[in-house]
Design a protein that fits this description.
Length: 364
């Protein structure tokens, strides 16, 4: 962070170089990098503050074949086919946004947010930004039930904060980013979201949000989704570290057919003795029959439905190994095992597992 005249400039980001290996008939291996970079500038004008935010990711180049392996993951497409057992890369432009805050008093503020690519008022902070997931290099299985709208096109948000309560409403373009990750997507504002956030204390935050998303999936353009989320976050600073945790529920419902899927997540990261991190992520997530297709295209007349629930349990450890000037480096790894329902055991096996080792770098 630095200052120049009346501006304050900040830069944050991180990059993981990952090697993943998975067992079972659907398991695969890959070397890839997940990464995101966030420069920001801010200036105060009396009672108001102007913030310019940018977030970029080089994952379109560092994740080959438009995906990295992740058992039981679903969402978006690659080469015109559903992405199954894999996670898509982020777009190069994750956020391009302007935020204006005006304080009426010390307790009340109005905010206006506008972004050709940005984050509408939906859910808690997306997983790349959460302290409770800071050392986990891959996306949760419930990403598309909980926080996938953190990259949306043509976002406009109004917010009002009074004391510990914040109300927000957004309009945005509902189609999820296409699989061509270097461009800026756009479209008319056809979706909306609202969120209420309550911060009862310095280390507690809770939110509930609901959104109507128009035609999010390119393979099912006639389907609209109603998404609801609720979450509670807790953060506790320690003498030589920090402890951050999140409990999150997300739900998707097809507005025309009543097809409903739920995802539950508990994640927690503990930093201790300054250089050590341990974390866990536990999920209980509904999956659709698209998993049964594997790498095959959807047959004519196929209608996707939630039909099974998968559990995923992750434990990880990381240690910082040195400090290059302004850069923190660490080596770590994590292990994930799954609870597989009977309907999916013929395709995945009885006890599939996955492991990742990685190098993490972060501005310091």
């Amino acid at each position: 962070m630095t200052s120049y005249r009346n501006w304050t400039f900040m830069f944050h980001g991180e990059a993981f170089l990952n090697e993943i290996q998975q067992t079972g008939p659907r398991g695969s291996d890959k070397l890839f990098s997940t990464n995101w970079w966030m420069p920001m500038g801010q200036r105060k004008f009396g009672s108001s503050t102007l913030t310019i935010r940018t977030m970029l990711s080089f994952e379109p180049a560092t994740i080959s074949s438009r995906r990295y392996p992740e058992l039981f993951q679903q969402g978006e497409t690659a080469f015109g086919l559903p992405t199954v057992d894999g996670q898509h890369p982020h777009d190069f432009f994750m956020e391009l946004a302007v935020l204006y805050d005006y304080k009426f008093s010390g307790r009340t503020a109005l905010s206006v947010y506008a972004a050709p690519m940005g984050d509408p008022a939906m859910g808690p902070a997306a997983y790349p930004h959460r302290a409770s997931a800071s050392e986990d290099p891959i996306a949760p299985l419930g990403h598309h039930l909980q926080d996938s709208t953190h990259i949306a096109a043509d976002v406009v948000t109004l917010g009002l904060t009074h004391r510990s309560l914040r109300l927000e409403a957004s309009g945005f373009h509902g189609r999820e980013p296409d699989e061509f990750r270097w461009n800026i997507n756009s479209g008319k504002i056809d979706s909306w979201s609202t969120r209420i956030t309550f911060n009862p204390g310095q280390n507690w935050s809770a939110q509930y949000s609901i959104t109507q998303i128009h035609s999010p999936e390119s393979l099912a353009p006639s389907e609209d989704i109603r998404r609801m989320t609720a979450s509670v976050q807790y953060n506790r600073p320690l003498q030589k570290g920090n402890w951050a945790s999140l409990l999150l529920w997300g739900r998707n419902q097809d507005t025309s057919g009543g097809n409903v899927g739920n995802g539950y997540l508990l994640e927690s990261t503990l930093q201790f003795f300054q250089r050590n991190y341990v974390w866990t992520r536990m999920e209980n997530v509904d999956r659709t029959d698209e998993l049964l297709l594997g790498e095959s295209p959807e047959p004519p007349g196929f209608s996707e439905h939630y039909f099974a629930r998968v559990q995923a349990y992750t434990a990880g450890y990381e240690r910082e190994v040195g400090h290059i000037p302004h850069l923190s480096t660490a080596f770590g790894g994590q292990f994930t095992w799954y609870g597989v329902p009977a309907a999916l055991k013929p395709a995945y096996g009885e006890h599939p597992v996955g492991g990742i080792v990685f190098l993490r770098v972060r501005p310091h």
